[in-house]
Design goal:
Layout (H helix, E strand, L loop, with lengths): L19 H10 L5 H21 L5 E3 L7 H8 L13 H10 L9 E3 L6 E3 L2 E2 L10 H12 L4 E6 L1 H7 L1 E2 L8 H17 L4 E5 L9 H15 L6 E5 L8 H6 L5 E5 L6 H4 L8 E7 L9 H14 L2 E6 L18 H5 L4 H17 L5 H16 L6 H8 L11 H11 L17 H11 L5 H22 L16 H4 L3 E4 L6 E4 L2 E3 L3 E7 L6 H9 L7 E4 L1 H6 L9 H21 L4 E5 L14 H16 L7 E6 L8 H6 L4 E4 L7 H8 L5 E4 L12 H14 L18 H21 L1
Parallel strand pairs: 1-5, 4-6, 5-7, 7-8, 8-9, 9-10, 10-11, 16-17, 17-18, 18-19, 19-20
Antiparallel strand pairs: 2-3, 12-15, 13-14
This protein binds glutamine (GLN) and zinc ion.
């Protein structure tokens, strides 16, 4: 029998405990660091990551979850499946980054959310012309590196089924291409066996979503074929983010040696009943890889012991890669002792895995101290008064349907047009303008105490004045203040709301070099005072044009936070919604006629299984409506959605009942408009007319072309003109050039109507 390891994680974060990789990659892009120096930063981080796992006593360590940008892009490279438009770029690293971010000549791959997380992967493009070839240099290189360090390496690759199901296809059904790539995986397995590898981890998270019988049969055939090879490591098929459902028996029937199951998002019951698991090594994801709460060790041990009675052997693991949580609680000095004792970040989770492995092998006495500490922490958490605010709970209990309803949209349109006359095809932006060096310097200076709040405020007002002046010069119709004061669209609100805690260094990779610091929602949510009104009032005082009030919606605030796990998400959402509602009412009272409540994460939280989606959409839409229905009919509510395929939530987008919805469409080429039409959507819509994720400046012709395409799907009366997302990651020069072209394109197309 293959060696059955006992303790591991499914993957590791890679951005660096102090975001070293982010900084190195960005320096490389800026031409300030060469490829060798970048590679040495990567190598150092990999070594540190593996060392921590080895030191914790893990007898199997994931290798290959490191990436300079994204694991799906790495897989596309491994399978020789980069798009033809980057093929001409000779330098391998530059080709890779061009596929990831585009450059002045080529557009990048599309980017979309990784299952229901806030991580974005690059969507491989497969066409009939794609000829797959194995390019295993990255994984073999990292394996050699790990072996040289004495690390018990378990290489990790994304599996063929998930790779194809998540790719974008031109012609043909995804799984029809399995026959072309399975032999490449077979080749890879043989090379890993040559390298002396005992276990390989093949990630197939796509199997936790609903799959057709044909897809399940194809999966089964893939793993029959791979497990039938005689020269190969033992195969661990890893799932995460939910139950495998019918895919579990399908996998159990194949000859793979191990299966990783998520026992946090998924359930133990669905695993132990499956006949045949007594032949398998079960890697039990009992430590939550997605949230930051300390494990209830008792419950985890119960689950592990139950599983051990049924499975061939059991290893303790995280429910998914630790990519989704911050590195460590070290350095989080501002957390009060109580809250701290409830938490576990990456390093603490690694120790939990080790503790549980000891408990499982040597009995509970061997971990008595850890068990009693965990119980004590759970007791203080349950009793903490910050978790139960009666005033908020009473207000929620008293809500009625009327609190989630406005007058019919058609009637609102009439009064809003009278309140705020606008030209056809009004132009606007999504909210943020470039986060300039001056802004970052000011924020850092405030944090270090080098400047006071008044000076910070003065500098931010200077930025706002610049952005307003720019928009007036460019002649945009509905202005924004530019959000200079916001480090992040969720954190900014979390810092001002009771019930949230903002970490000092809790960075998590969002995409490529972009990291976010999700706040921790631990208690009941209260808004002690207005959060955005002063900035809005200042911006509006500088111009006669309307300035949009700019808020983040309740669903997105939850999606981009670590949420409490002691009450349903729906309840937390309504608590946040009340705070946002109070803010809209205050903005309106201060003169705002347009208020945008962003919900870019609406699609992201959608449950992976259809059976769970209705309930989610009901509470998500309900929370948005609660947050936006407190204003008068004359006030236009806008919303903004991005980063995803909207097909599945298109009905919910209509349900938001926002007067205007701006929506990412540049990268998905306006398909979204047809989808909206199909559900009878008849509100205002601003399909993004250019892609802000790339530094390219779109030409007037290109934008005008997008607008003409949009006009085929949407009447001019409902069409807005805007970029596809906020501009904070872009440089001021390209933003000005792009927006000048956008305004000009709107003018050109207006004249054609
Ligand atoms: N208003 C936000 C901004 O412009 C929206 C960002 C987003 O959609 N992610 O930055
Ligand atoms: Zn956006």
């Amino acid at each position: 029998m293959t060696f059955a390891f006992t303790a591991t994680v499914l993957g590791s974060p890679r951005i660096g405990p102090r975001r070293e990789l982010k900084k190195a990659v960005e320096s490389y892009w800026a031409g300030k660091l060469d490829a060798d120096a970048l590679e040495s930063v990567g190598k150092d981080l990999r070594r540190q990551t593996w060392a921590e796992l080895v030191d914790a006593g893990f007898d199997s360590v994931p290798v290959g979850t490191f990436s300079y940008y994204d694991q799906m892009l790495d897989t596309a490279v491994m399978l020789g499946a980069l798009p033809a438009r980057v093929a001409g770029i000779d330098n391998e690293l530059d080709r890779y980054f061009a596929a990831a971010r585009g450059n002045s000549e080529v557009t990048p791959l599309e980017m979309t959310k990784w299952f229901d997380t806030n991580y974005h992967y690059l969507v491989p493009e497969i066409t009939p012309a794609t000829t797959f070839t194995l390019n295993p240099a990255k994984v073999l290189g990292e394996v050699a590196e790990a072996k040289a360090l004495g690390v018990p390496a378990r290489p990790v690759v994304i599996g063929p089924v998930t790779f194809l199901l998540l790719a974008k296809f031109e012609g043909g059904a995804p799984l029809d291409r399995l026959d072309e790539i399975v032999p490449l995986y077979a080749d890879l397995l043989s090379r890993l066996a040559d390298a002396g590898i005992e276990w390989v981890q093949i990630d197939e998270p796509a199997l936790v979503a609903d799959r057709t019988d044909a897809e399940l049969a194809a999966t089964r055939s893939v793993y029959d074929r791979l497990s039938a090879l005689d020269h190969r490591p033992a195969i661990l098929v890893a799932s995460y983010f939910g139950d495998l459902g019918p895919a579990l028996p399908a996998l159990v029937e194949t000859g793979v040696e191990g299966i990783a199951v998520d026992l946090v998002a998924g359930s133990l019951g669905s695993v132990v009943e499956v006949p045949g698991i007594e032949r398998k090594h079960l890697v039990a994801g009992v430590v939550d890889g997605r949230n930051i709460w300390r494990s209830g060790l008792d419950g985890s041990l119960d689950a592990l012991e139950t599983l051990r009675e049924r499975a061939g052997s059991v290893a303790v693991s995280t429910s998914c890669s630790l990519l989704h949580v911050p590195y460590s609680l070290d350095g989080e000095d501002a957390i009060d002792g109580a809250l701290r004792s409830w938490l576990a970040f990456g390093s603490e989770k690694i120790r939990e895995v080790a503790t549980l492995a000891t408990g499982l092998s040597s009995g509970r006495d061997a971990i008595a101290r850890e068990l009693s500490e965990t119980r004590a922490a759970a007791a203080t958490r349950a009793a903490d008064p910050r978790l139960h605010d009666d005033a908020i709970r009473d207000r929620l209990a008293a809500l009625t349907e009327a609190d989630r309803n406005r007058r019919p949209a058609a009637e609102r349109r009439v009064v809003q047009a009278a309140e705020l006359p606008l030209p056809q095809l009004p132009t606007t932006t999504i909210g943020s303008y470039p986060q300039t060096t001056a802004i970052r310097v000011a924020r850092a200076a405030l944090r270090k105490g080098e400047i006071d709040q008044a000076e910070y405020q003065r500098r931010m007002q200077g930025e706002i004045a610049d952005v307003i002046a720019l928009q007036e010069k460019l002649d945009l119709d509905v202005l924004v203040h530019g959000e200079p004061e916001r480090n992040d669209m969720v954190q900014y609100f979390a810092e001002q709301l009771d019930g949230f805690f903002a970490t000092a260094n809790g960075w998590v990779q969002s995409y490529g070099s972009r990291c976010v610091r999700p706040p921790i929602l631990f208690g009941d949510v209260r808004r002690p005072k207005p959060m955005t009104v002063e900035w809005f009032t200042y911006a509006q005082s500088l111009t006669d044009k309307p300035v949009k009030g700019m808020l983040t919606g309740p669903v997105t605030i939850l999606a981009w936070s670590f949420v409490r796990d002691d009450q349903p998400l729906a309840e937390s959402a309504d608590q946040v919604a009340l705070a946002i509602r109070d803010e809209t009412v205050d903005l309106e009272a201060s003169g705002a006629t347009v208020i945008q409540v962003d919900e870019p994460a609406l699609r992201e939280l959608l449950p992976l299984r259809a059976a769970d989606q209705r309930a989610y959409l009901d509470w998500a839409v309900g929370a948005f409506l609660l947050s936006t229905s407190g204003v008068a009919d004359t006030t236009a509510i806008h919303t903004h959605l991005c980063y995803s395929e909207f097909g599945e939530v298109i009905g919910a987008i209509a349900g938001l009942d926002a007067d205007v919805t701006s929506i990412e469409a540049a990268r998905s080429h306006m398909e979204v408009l047809d989808d909206l039409n199909a559900v009878g959507f008849d509100l205002g819509v601003g399909p993004g007319v250019y892609d802000i994720h790339s530094p390219r400046v779109p030409s007037v012709d290109e934008i005008a072309g997008s607008l003409r395409a949009a006009l085929k799907a949407v009447p001019a009366e409902r069409l807005w003109v805007n970029p596809d997302c906020g501009l904070k990651t872009r440089g001021p020069v390209e933003v000005e050039a792009s927006l000048r072209n956008l305004v000009e394109a709107a003018r050109v197309v207006r004249a054609e109507i």
